[in-house]
Amino acid sequence: MGSLWIGPLGKVGEVRQAATEFDRSVQLGIEEFAALSGGITTTRLATPPRRLTLSWSAMADTEAQWIEALARNVYGPGPLVVIDPASRNLLEGGQSQGYGPRSAYSPSTWGTFTERADHVMTLTDPREGDQLTYSHRHWFGFPVVPGLPVHMAAALPEAQCQLTFYTEDFEFRGSFGPASPLTAVPPAGAEIVLPRLVFKAWTGTKPIGPALLRMGDPLTPGELGALGDGCPAMTVTGYTDKARPPHHDLTLSLVEVRRTPS
To answer: In terms of domain of life, where is this protein from (predicted)?
Structure first.
C-alpha cells in the first residue's frame, strides 16, 4: 500500500511520505519474579496494546499540518484510525488464524459455534447461508477509506466472504459478495465495513480456518495465513515538530485504546 492512513473515523487522511523511522514493536508487558529458591515466575498481558512510533525528515508543510492537527485534537478527542503500510492483514491475530477468543466473532447461525480447548474456532452442522462476522475491538466494524479497495479471502472451502458497508451511525451503504476472494470499493458515505463469512451447509464439525482482510494492495496467492496485525484504534501519546521552513522534522507516538467492558 505504501502510504500511512491516519485520522478520525470518517476523516482519514493519507500520509504519502515514508517515515524515516517506523517502530511497531509489540510491548509484551512481561514481568519476572525471582523466588529465593532461584525459580523464576513470569506474568504477561493477555493482549498487549499495539504501539507505533514514527519519524519523518523534511516533511512537506501540508502533511505536517495534518499530523499536527491530529496531535492537537483539532477534530475532537476521539481515537484515531491507523492503517499502517506494514500491515498485511487487518484482522486480529487470532481471527487471522481461525483461533479465539470467541468474543472476537459474532455468529448468526443455526449451527454450533465453539472455541475448543486449543482455542481453535469450530462450526458444527451449519445451514446454508449461516454467517459469522469478525468483530473489531473498538468500533462496531473495521474503518474504511473512500476509494481504497477492501479485499477479503477465507481458507475454508465451504465459506465465502461478504463485505457490508455502513456509516458510523449504522446507516447501510451497500453489500458485496458472497465470494472468495472478494474485492469491493467502499460506496459513497461508507465509514465502516463488516467482514463476514457465509457458509454452505454441512454435517459434522469443521474449523473455520484462516482469513485475510486488507485495504489497498490486492491479495496474492499464498497469503492466506498471514498473521493479523489488527486495525487498532489509537491515540497520540507523543509529538515533536522541529521546523525547518518550509519543511518539518516530526515524530509521532501512538498507543492502542480499547473500550472499557460494560
So the answer is: Bacteria
